[in-house]
Amino acid sequence: MSRVAVIEDDHPTSNQLRAWIEAARPGIMVDQWFSRDDAEAAIARERYDLVVLDIELGRERHAGVAIINAINKRHATPVLVVSAMPATIYRSIMKALDAWDYLQKATFEEADFVETFLEILRAAPVPAPAPSAGTAELSMDPLRQRTPMWRGQRINLPLTAQRILAALFARRGQVISYDELFDVVKSGRNRDNIRKHVSTIRDAFREIDPDFTCIENVPMRGFRWTDGE
Length: 229
What we know:
Blueprint: E1 3-7, H1 11-24, E2 29-33, H2 36-45, E3 50-53, H3 63-74, E4 79-83, H4 87-96, E5 101-104, H5 110-123, E6 138-139, E7 149-150, E8 153-154, H6 159-170, E9 175-177, H7 178-182, H8 191-208, E10 215-218, E11 222-225
Parallel strand pairs: 1-2, 1-3, 3-4, 4-5
Antiparallel strand pairs: 6-7, 7-8, 9-11, 10-11
Helix pairs in contact: 2-3, 6-8
């Protein structure tokens, strides 16, 4: 069952969003939070499939920015921002923070919200259980910095690329955000550099397996190791 959080300090608006969500997806679980502290505590405690978030909470003009950063550090949960801030200014800001979409209050109808909400919910990755050791085709020991093996063949990778590969494979089925990958590299902590490392990894795998597709790009968010199917 899907579980979403509505983080909005205005109670009537929060209740309206909840009603739209529940009507659009019967049986869905909706948690409502009205302050930054309560929202951050819930995010640390729960794993949500989607978060609907206002930027201003109480007297904190940019509380939503802090909450998005907290979300990205933990689970990279999809975020739909619903705010009165001008979309012409804040949509690009929220995208840069890895929010999935932005709706400006008083400029959209129920149908617009529901369509956007459902589109994000369908596109959001579902964490997959890790395969058993007997079925995993990749073997590596990043602690000992040994060359990784794919289907019994050695993969030639620089050390930084090995670290990124290890991070992706350790949490296979989950999206690993750019911020999390920044912690893996020692220099060049920017998205372009991460993408170059991932490209190097893919090329190395395809040298021995031309059909390799196990590293998936998740737009605006990061990368995910999949089963390649």
